[in-house]
Design goal:
CATH architecture of the largest domain in chain A: Up-down Bundle
CATH class of the largest domain in chain A: Mainly Alpha
Strand content of chain A: under 5%
Number of helices of chain A: 11
Shape of chain A: elongated
Mean pLDDT of chain A: 80
Largest sheet of chain A: 3 strands, antiparallel
CATH superfamily of the largest domain in chain A: GntR ligand-binding domain-like
CATH topology of the largest domain in chain A: Four Helix Bundle (Hemerythrin (Met), subunit A)
Helix content of chain A: over 70%
Low-confidence stretches of chain A: 76-90, 245-250
Number of strands of chain A: 3
Distance between the termini of chain A: 41 Å
Radius of gyration of chain A: 23 Å
Structural class of chain A: mainly alpha
Oligomer: homodimer
Largest interface: A-B, 37 and 44 residues
Order of helices and strands of chain A: HEHHEEHHHHHHHH
DNA sequence: AATTACGCACTGGTCGGACCAGTTTTTTGT
DNA sequence: ACAAAAAACTGGTCCGACCAGTGCGTAATT
């Protein structure tokens, strides 16, 4: 299905192993056959096997310990529901916050411009998006939240801004988006976010550019820091789990 | 900072290359030195280099083409200048000012972050770029001006910011760049620009983030408005010419 | 006999050289 | 001058060797 064997041996072997891992043929924490074993069984040189393994390591699916072997490191056994989250951007979490740093500026600018330049039509759209979002079920408002912000960016009447923000958003992995949305599950966060949305809305509608910028920036920053908190918590959980496991295996 | 060199050679080489990519030392789409070259330059075997490259490939930071080489595949997707949408807008002067509007924010943020996060090495680079620029012949300092701004953006240590600003800059047509440079011909503008540069430089070096942001934003805004003025003047000239023609043909 | 220590048989990590296969540049023969 | 052949790149694959951690079983020591 997703068999892209693209370039060649090492690639296809990596894909093959990945498939086995995702299938569950290779359970998490289970030991992967040794390099020499794979090499002879697959009829390729050991170098190729090593390249394939490094490829998987790059994706964080594998961990290798000198003298012991390589092990599947699917952190969370849960199929593919809620928490492959961390693993994806765990190595790049820094970049994620860099991204928020940029977004903070641009969303702020967008809100300010929207307050200044929104036409009546824009204001109508913003109002509609806002009301729809407020009335909606908190669990399903991912799209609506997005639509609200989008309506504001569009009201800024700056295509470059729109374009850049779009590509930044598409940069965020779905998992991260999901995580952001999961903030809504925590009542305190949800309320804070709602408050921010209201502030942004009113500021833009009442054409108070300065306030709009401030509110939008605060909003992005809040989301970013909330995410950071969650990451910190999960890191602790993971570490705790690992410690626990080591205790058990000791 | 995030330098986990953990296991060994291939890992640390991968990390090193990743750093270079994120830093912008290796621009997107740029060719990475050949495996044999890296191998000899880093003093390790080619196999190790290959493993490091595969690691990066696994993370999607690299693409490799047989017989050609390996290439940085933009971590931060380029703000597509090729997208049909942008294609339409490019060239419209209105879009140009939208662009400056965005740049104003981002350059400001970059300067502020640079003031906060610049290492000694960064400061040295910035100082060198600044002094070189000041000492240079005003007519040929297009490159140097660019280098100065770049050194500051790099000192912000935010790869997303770096890449976005890079792609924005590439959006500006050469003609525009030339026009900006032509501002230097007018003594008043030139002096103002120099003053801005000095302010930015001193603010960043003395770690005054707020001031740095303000200066950088003022700088971009000034350039933008100067350009607008020039355009206005030229428009008058053109209109005058057109009127003249109509008179003649009447 | 129990315990320690050594050593062998694993594991991954690194090396160098060889060769194949695409791509680009240079040379060369008409 | 031009087109074809050749040389000089590039990455892709293989081999065989050796080093370095790890673990286990056996032999030496107590």
């Amino acid at each position: 299905m997703t068999n892209k064997q693209a370039n060649s041996t090492s690639q296809s072997i990596a894909a093959h192993l990945e498939q086995m891992i995702l299938d569950g043929s290779l359970a998490p924490e289970s030991k992967i056959p040794s390099e020499r074993q794979l090499s002879s069984r697959l009829g390729v040189s050991r170098a190729i096997v090593r390249e394939a393994l490094h490829e998987l390591h790059g994706r964080g699916m594998i961990e290798t310990r000198h003298g012991k072997g390589s092990f599947v490191s699917c952190v969370v056994p849960q199929v593919d529901e809620s928490t492959p989250l961390m693993q994806l951007y765990i190595g790049h979490s820094r970049t994620l916050y860099d991204l928020f740093e940029v977004r903070e500026q641009l969303e702020g600018q967008a809100a300010a411009l929207a307050a200044e330049r929104a036409t009546e039509q824009d204001q109508y759209r913003i109002r509609k998006a806002f009301e729809t979002m407020e009335a909606a079920d908190p669990l399903t408002n991912a799209e609506l939240d997005h639509a609200f912000h989008r309506s504001i960016v569009e009201a800024s009447h700056n295509p470059v801004l729109l374009h850049v923000l779009n590509s930044l958003k598409s940069l965020m992995l779905d998992s991260v988006q999901a995580a952001v949305m999961n903030l809504a599950h925590r009542k305190a966060f949800k309320q804070q976010i709602d408050r921010h949305h209201r502030q942004i809305y009113h500021a833009v509608i009442s054409r108070q550019a300065r306030w709009a910028r401030k509110a939008a920036m605060a909003h992005v920053r809040h989301v970013s820091e909330s995410l950071r908190q969650i990451e910190e918590q999960e890191k602790h959980l993971i570490r705790a789990a690992l410690d626990q496991r080591e205790v058990e295996s000791a």
